[in-house]
Amino acid sequence: MEKMKYEFIAIEGIIGTGKTSLVEMLSKALEGTPVLEQFDENPFLPLFYNDPKRYAFTLETSFLTERFHQLKENLSSGQLFLPCISDYIFQKSTLFARVNLNDAEFELFNKMAGFMTDNLPVPEIILYLYKKPEKAKEQILSRGRPYEKNIELSYLQAIHDSYMEFFRQNSHIKTVIVDTSNLDFVKNKAHFEYLKNLLLADYKRGITGIIPEINAGN
Question: Would you say residue 101 has pLDDT above 70?
Fold first, then answer.
């Protein structure tokens, strides 16, 4: 197996793009350490989907602290098998908060996040799984979480737009955006190998966009 060029990799994307599944598969194939967000254990998530305005700040603050402690604990450990592969970037908290909070709440939230960000390492590369909101919603509905059933396409698009603004503003980070709308890397080995091999290449700083030359049938 070719030597991995990166020791800290983040897989990102909007809800329903398969981030966690890909991290689990990559960690196994590359003999690395997965860092997986435990969002199912967050008691505020169903409450937020039922009443967003009431629970948005509580939800985002809980995610912020959980992500900070998880990354701090995992990335400070000397016992990791490299590469370390996370299914989120720490800034995810701010990107979702920008969409979900009002201006006053976001200003306070952003200050808290800023204090924490300085104490965490930055991924050497971010692999962003782009998927059209319509296809992402199909995947969301297929996993059968009741609180997600009414998620709106406009919300998924707003989250995607928030990510894109972050990537544009942080051109020092190597960010590879790959269109996975026609890929099924969980069921199709060739699709998984394609994504894995993307992480064997070197990239310039900033955004690199990739449209795969394979499709759902390959």
Answer: yes
**Pair 37, 87: CB distance under 8 Å:** yes
Q: b/e for 110-145, b at 16 or more Cβ within 10 A?
A: eebbeebeeebeebebbbbbbbbbeebbeebeeeee
Q: What is the Cα–Cα distance from 153 to 136, expressed in whole angstroms?
A: 9
Residue tagged 């707003």 (tokens): 158
> In the structure, how many helices (H) and strands (E) does the chain have?
8, 6
Token look-up 């310039």 returns 204
Residues 5-21: pLDDT tens digits?
Answer: 899 999 999 999 999 99
Domain boundaries, the chain: 8-210
> Can you tell me which residue has the tokens 């897989």?
11
Strand, helix or coil for residue 137: helix
Whether 74 has a pLDDT exceeding 80, the answer reads: no
User: Please, which residues bridge with residue 178 across strands?
Assistant: 129, 210
**Strand ranges, E, within the chain:** 8-12, 33-35, 84-86, 125-130, 174-179, 206-210
Task: State the pTM of this model.
Answer: 0.93
Q: Are 200 and 127 in contact (CB under 8 A)?
A: no
User: Could you list the active site residues?
Assistant: 87
Domain at 8-210, CATH from 3.90.550.10, 3.40.50.720, 3.40.30.10, 3.40.50.300: 3.40.50.300
Selection from 48, 157, 64, 43 nearest residue 100 by Cα: 48
3-state secondary structure of 33: strand
